Amino acid sequence: MRERMPKRRRGFDDEYDGEYVPHPVHLHEDPDLPPAGDRWSTWTGAQQGPEPRPAWVETAHAAVDTELGVLKTGKEADVHLVERGVSGSPGVLLAAKRYRTAEHRMFHRDAGYQEGRRVRRSREMRAMTNRTAFGRELLSGQWAAAEFAALATLWSAGLPVPYPVQLDGTELLLEFVGDGTRAAPRLAQLRPSGPELAELWEQLVEALRGLARHGWAHGDLSAYNLLVHHGRLVLIDLPQVVDLVGNPHGADFLVRDVRRVAEWFTARGLPDSAGEELFHELVAEAGLG
């Protein structure tokens, strides 16, 4: 059995930090493991990403997943780096976002975000409201499913988000955004100025307009869940996407999203009026004005 990965502490949850811990580990203590790698591909039994799929998506039944290490740890989920491929062929790198089990997880922000979402069975709704062990498991699945659905919708609409490869229980496999095994940097790690700053802001405005056209706000937007890959801005961490109409606090989430990112950009030279202008533009785009 391979060495277990050490636990790591991070300051921000559910986001890439650009590095991984190179300590492979078997994902399951299963006697039917493949001869190499950590598990057989889970593609066949999973909910699969939207079509047309990118050419790089590995769908072969004989593919194997190899655990390369941890990209990011967080309160609700950890992000791992996984390589999926068939023996003798180059593999593809994926970001595996794994929501924590009930006994190791703390969904500290979910109440406000969950408003406007509906669960059909009253027993399940009561369990989630009362935070029973069963209810916490349901919440975990809801967060994973909500992020998968949001990414599928936004990717299909051409918005700059990672392609959602598959959803299997509470594990979400995503397109890995980076070079080699190094994830793209978060916006917060960069120091853009002048034309570069203006270009990134324009990309962000277009991305948020796309969200607003769907009637959504990101819900937890900041410079820490925006990646920049070769000059392209990419939105990540979308389990809490907010319905601007169905959620009674939708407008408040939108205000907070815009304020957070606008403050980051204005501190680096963007006009102070940019945030207010963006907010009114998004309200109009969502049909709320």
Question: How would you concisely characterize the structure shown here?
Answer:
With 289 residues, the protein is α+β, with helices and mostly antiparallel strands. Helix content is 30%, strand content 19%. It has helices at residues 110-114, 122-130, 133-156, 194-213, 250-266, 274-285; strands spanning 39-40, 47-48, 64-72, 77-85, 92-99, 164-168, 171-175, 178-179, 182-183, 216-217, 226-229, 232-235, 242-243.
Describe the protein:
It is a single chain. With 289 residues, this protein is α+β, with helices and mostly antiparallel strands. Helices cover 30% and strands 19% of the residues. The protein has a seven-stranded antiparallel sheet with strand order 1-3-4-5-7-6-2, with helices on one face. Residues 1-16, 104-108 and 123-135 have low confidence and may be disordered.
Strand order of the largest sheet: 1-3-4-5-7-6-2
**Oligomeric state of the chains?**
single chain
Based on DSSP secondary structure assignment, what is the total number of beta strands?
Answer: 13
Low-confidence parts: 1-16, 104-108, 123-135
* Sheet of most strands: 7 strands, antiparallel
End-to-end Cα distance: 59 Å
Mean pLDDT over the residues: 84
What is the CA-atom radius of gyration, in angstroms?
19 Å
* Strand portion: 15-25%
Shape: globular
Biased composition (Basic residues): 1-10
Keywords: ATP-binding, Kinase, Magnesium, Metal-binding, Nucleotide-binding, Serine/threonine-protein kinase, Transferase
Domain RIO kinase: 38-284
Catalytic activity: L-threonyl-[protein] + ATP = O-phospho-L-threonyl-[protein] + ADP + H(+); L-seryl-[protein] + ATP = O-phospho-L-seryl-[protein] + ADP + H(+)
